[in-house]
Structure formats: structure tokens, C-alpha cells
Amino acid sequence: MAGALLLAGSPAWGQLRIVTTVGMVRAIAEEVAGPEAEVTGLMGSGVDPHLYKPTRGDVVALSQADVILYNGLHLEGRMVEIFARMERRDTPVLAVAEAALEEAGEAPLPGDDPHVWMDVSLWSHAVAAVAEFLAEVDEENAAGYAERAAEYRRRLTSLHAYGEEVTGSIPAGRRVLITAHDAFSYFGEAYGVEVRGIQGLSTESEAGVRDVERLLDSIVRRGIPAIFVEDSVSDKNVRALVEGARARGHDLRIGGTLYSDAMGPEGSYTGTYIGMLDHNLTTISRALGGSPPAGGFQGQHGKEN
Ligand SMILES: [Zn+2]
0.85 exceeded by the pTM? Predict the structure, then answer.
């Protein structure tokens, strides 16, 4: 660790250099580490982690890191090898979603579903896991990590309660969430919504024509009012479903764009984990006929773009 701190462009003396993958993991690192670390996120807004290949710059950043935090459960499918290489070099590496499930005493959803951040209460366990991990690496600042983690977890507890309340306002027959790929199963479990993805768990798999037909049948039969586009995934399949439903005389709308595997633009409200989940919870609840407050969780929803 000491060697890495002396390199050019290095963080302030004594600061930990943490490298993360997706924004949802970066957000935890920033909240928990506070001034104790310089946090670098490799995957920005709109980036699909399933398909992401590390750049040469990423490899340099990872090899200079004091700590590496990634989601795991094969979310970053094309980076598994480099994380293993860094671990062999004794860089502390944590798969945050896997640690969260362990901390919560839960197994991953079928298919080793990696989208754990969609359940705010589970993601709060990720915060605890990161704080413990950083405390092991950097004992001197353990108290600060624990304190900031507890504060962040309190905010996530209120966000989770908000989520339960607004999704609870969706009428019973309309509690179906259809999105571009299978990113919302943890969301569905946590907030009592049936979830269908057009593509599978990874955007690497293609949707079959027969699956799409079957989904279309069920949308028309059940009178589902809206389906959703995802920010980091092509909307091709979603638009095809809307056209298919309309051709059968069912007025299906696009209920909004959800943030599934990446947060919104850096510096904006949806560029934070809380803003991302507030956006999803509020948008979904409203489009399916629920009655969330116009400003969302804390009055900031809808002002972002
Ligand atoms: Zn995904």
C-alpha cells in the first residue's frame, strides 16, 4: 500500500486509493470512506457492466489501487480475470453484492442474479460489509468508517420505507414491472411487484421471438398499462412490445426510463444511489397507477432532467 501512495497523481498523504466498478458501488465507497480515501469509479453513467471490457487505463488504475470494490455475481463478466490477478498480487478485493447477501444471511436470487442494489435494505448490508472491509485494511480509520456507514444506512432505511409506501399504493392488478432485461428481481421481492425482463439476467443474451410473443399475450390479456425503458440498455425490444400491443388494440405506454445497471449523470440527483432508487421507485409507482408524491422521496425527484 505504501508504494502505491508515492506514485504521481496520487491522493493526499495517507489517503486510501479505492477503485470501484459500477456507480452503485462507488457511491458506497465515497459515503463510507469520506475524506479517508480517493475513490475512482471505472464505469460511469450509461455504461452496461455486463458488456464492459477493462481499458488499458483501468488496468493501470486497478494495479495502483490499495483496495478494489466490485459488485460480483458475474455482473462485471469480462473483468473477473483481472480481479483474480489483483488478488494474487495481495490487493484487498471485495465483491460487494456477494458480501451484502452474506451479511444479510440470504442467498442470491435464481441464476446468481447480480442486481442486489435494487433492494435498498439489502444494499444497506453492502454498506456495512464495505465499512468492515475498509476497517480491516486501514485499522487506524476504523471508527470513521463505522460512523459514516451508520449514518448512510439510516438514510437508506428511510429510503426503503419510502419505497414500501409508494409501491404499496399501486393497485393490486397492476403490480407488474416489465423492463428491457431482468435487472429488477430483487426490486420485485423487496417491494411486492411481479417482474418480467424481455432479455435475460445479462444483456449478453438475446430475447427470443417466442418469449416476446408470450409476454405480449400476457400484457394484452392483463391490461398492463406501462412498460419501462432502461438507461443503459437498448430500447429496441421495449419499443417492439409497445408497437405489438398497439397492433392488438391495447394502449401500452412507456412508463419512463429506469436506471438499472448504471446511475444517472455524475453531479445530478440520479447520479447518486439514493437519487437513482428514488427515481425508479417513484417512476414505477406512478406509471402503474400508484400515488407517489410529485417530488419523490425528498422533494428532488423530477428536477434532475
Ligand atoms: Zn443487468
Answer: yes
